[in-house]
Amino acid sequence: MSKVQIMTGNQAAAIGAMLSNVQVVAAYPITPQSQLAEIMSQYIEGGKLRAEYVRVESEHSALTVCISASTVGARVFTATSANGLLYMHEQLHWAAGARLPIIMCCVNRGVGAPWTIFNDQQDSFSQRDTGWIQIYCRNNQEILDTVIQAYRIAEKVYVPVMVCFDGFVLSHTMMPVEIPDAGKVRNFLPPYKPHTILSSEDPRNINPVLFPWRRENSEGILCDGYMEMRYKLQAALENAREVIMETDHAFHEVFGRKHGGMIWEYKTEDAELILTGMGSIASEATTAADMLRAEGVKAGAVGIRVFRPFPKDDVREAFKKARAIIIFEKAISYGYEGGLCSDLKSAFYGTDIKAPIHGYVAGLGGRDVKARELAEAAKASLADMKAGHIEKNTTWLNCHTG
Amino acid sequence: MPENLFKLNAKEYILPGSRACQGCGLSLAYRYMLKALRENTIVTLPACCLCVLQGIYPSTPVMIPALNNSFASTAASASGIVAGLQALNRSDTTVVAIAGDGGTFDMGIQSLSGAAERETDFIYVCYDNEGYMNTGTQRSSATPLGAITTTTPILTKQQHKKDFIKIVEAHDIPYLAAVSPSYPIDLYEKFVKAKKIKGTRYIHMHIGCPPGWVYPPKDTVKMGRLAVETGLAVLFEVEDGKFRFTGRSKTIAQKGNRLPVINYVEKQGRFKKMNIEQLNQLQVWVDKKWDEYMRRAEG
Predict the structure, then answer these.
(1) In A, residues 157-216, which contact B (CB 8 Å cutoff)?
(2) Backbone angles phi, psi at B250, to 5 degrees
(3) What's the structural domain count of chain B?
(4) Residue A374 in 3-state DSSP?
(5) What distance in Å separates residue A210's CA from the closest CA in chain B?
(6) What does the DSSP 8-state code read for residue B105?
(7) Looking at the predicted structure, is the pLDDT value of residue B93 above 80?
(8) Does residue A277 sit in the same domain as residue A148?
(9) Does position B2 have pLDDT exceeding 80, yes or no?
(10) How many helical (H) and strand (E) elements, i.e. helices and strands, does chain A have?
């Protein structure tokens, strides 16, 4: 039986992991993820979840434990934030390269120096190119559901999934969340089958050294070189779109909720102005769109739910009627612009989408962003666009740049 | 204890065709180690000489399943294997983490300390060839005083070797041993014993390296023996805190016929720039360590 409870985003993630029957958890505490690590300990020590909890001495080891436990065939879970994620960087590449279906929650937080414990998305954004699927959640229900979906996706495509949600804004904010029925989740998630079994009967040397070229094995079969393996990882991410869409669809059939698969849309059918972003700021943009509509501007919002693989075809469809596009993001590629802004522009290249695009960097290090401010920023951009300022530089919202 | 090499497990777990250097001490040690551990063992290793010995994809000469991981993570990787096997009710498998001195004394110390403190049920093996040999003989914290490396090419290493075994022992683990492949029966017996013990077990292997130490490949066994005979490597075990000499070191302790370090140093090109002051310092350092061991053996 499903039931509704009031809970934080961290609790929702922990329940998602418990319902997914994870078998090994390894985590190292960091604000704002620590509550999630604590709740998992309670579940396991209290006997609610039968799993091994490895209380590691660092984030690098947390992900290493997950890598090795996943290799031997256990379903694994970890979570981190900010500098913890950066400390894992080497192992993020390792997990994806080894094709392991690890699920990690990234409770998004700004990175030092200087220190901030508050929210932005520079941590996960800076891990964009590690070969992980990245999904950004907009509310606590989506966090719980996405953790469950993530296991089904990862174990089909053998690519790790990072479930990202905004620190404090979601991690420590209470919202009503429907908890799915445990039996239904078990049916939704078939048992994890590792791609390779580590056994003396069939000894293998996993993740060994490769030459640049392809080589024959002892039976004379030509085996992949490093580059073929990298190509297969890329192909797996590209093919993951279909699995992500199918999973969201199947989830809807069983649990009655869908989160959009690659992206979600809000009042875009007739929208001339589309606001977009990832995570809670995209959710905030829906309120801004309503405010703009109240003032006669036909506005809508699109949430980029999956950042990698990039939803190229989905955004081409969603933005095809847009006359103006405004992007709010909580991360930046230093020296250029927001990464989502660049990706959207490149997705539209060669299409009929010629709408002017303005990028905003907002909410870094927890700087508050209200829906009203997004609406005002959108109006200012519209005025600029009407005045012919198409190639506008990135604007830093609520930032004293003088 | 098997009285001779013919009484050891006859099965070979390393087939011909490993990629180790000619005369590699690790090849010998790994061979006897796997004979002692037998099937139902999983090995995890970082980027290191062993990673090369294990072969280039898609072939491997090693008949025991192995999981390669990144440099800092050997003991954490073992923790993950142990946890994963436990979750899958496969806890009868022996999990072995094995890394060189660079991956243990230097970069791997954090994850090893963490795993030992968590009383992880695994064997950690450090094969100590006293430098970053796989990357071309750079200095590590295990390199002895006075040795030339490619990052101490002119002045030689100015510091003594880190007493890493002491650091491991401070974790109060149930079993700790030091071995040399020049004494394979002693090595074999300690692995057989370690396999039967629960908890974190640590075995330190002193490994000769012909290209790194600059001696002829045929002399690896001789170098290992000289290391033990001079006290630069000591064969011992510490079981539940109780120290005892074993094998050749035990005989030396009884007879008091330990050789001066010059007998070892003069045979290796890496020490050719060692001055008399460094030689004396090395002798004083070895004497002090040996005296500590003697006191523990008596106590």
Answers:
(1) 198-200, 202-211, 215-216
(2) -65, -45
(3) 1
(4) helix
(5) 5
(6) I
(7) yes
(8) no
(9) no
(10) 13, 18
Q: How far apart are CA B188 and CA B29, in angstroms?
A: 9
Structural domain range at position A349: 265-396
Query: In B, which residues are within 8 Å of A60 by CB distance?
Result: 72-73, 76, 110-111
**A387 and A275 co-located in one domain:** yes
C-alpha to C-alpha distance for B245 and B253, rounded to whole angstroms: 8
Placement of tokens 């392809």 in the chain: A214
Residue type, A184: K
Closest CA to B220 of B211, B231, B233: B211
DSSP secondary-structure letter at B1? -
Read off the CATH number of the domain in which B265 is found. Answer: 3.40.50.970
B268 vs A: CB within 8 A: no
Count how many pairs of residues, chain A against chain B, have C-beta atoms within 8 Å.
Answer: 164
Average pLDDT of the segment spanning A148-156: 98
Number of compact structural domains in chain A:
2
B83 and A211 within 8 Å at the Cβ level: the answer is: no
> Which tens digit of pLDDT belongs to each residue from B141-151?
999 999 999 99
Looking at residue A76, its amino acid is V
Give the DSSP H/E element, type plus range, for residue A345.
helix A339-348
* B44, B57, B62 ranked by CB distance to A68: nearest: B44
Does B118 reside within a domain? Answer: yes
Q: What is the pLDDT of residues A110-122, one digit of tens each?
A: 999 999 999 999 9
User: Is there a single domain that holds both residue A13 and residue A150?
Assistant: yes
Query: Residue A248: what residue type?
Result: D
Residue A344 covered by a domain: yes
- The answer to whether the predicted template modeling score (pTM) of the entire model surpasses 0.90 is yes
Q: What is the mean pLDDT of residues A280-288?
A: 97
A61 interfaces chain B, CB cutoff of 8 Å = yes
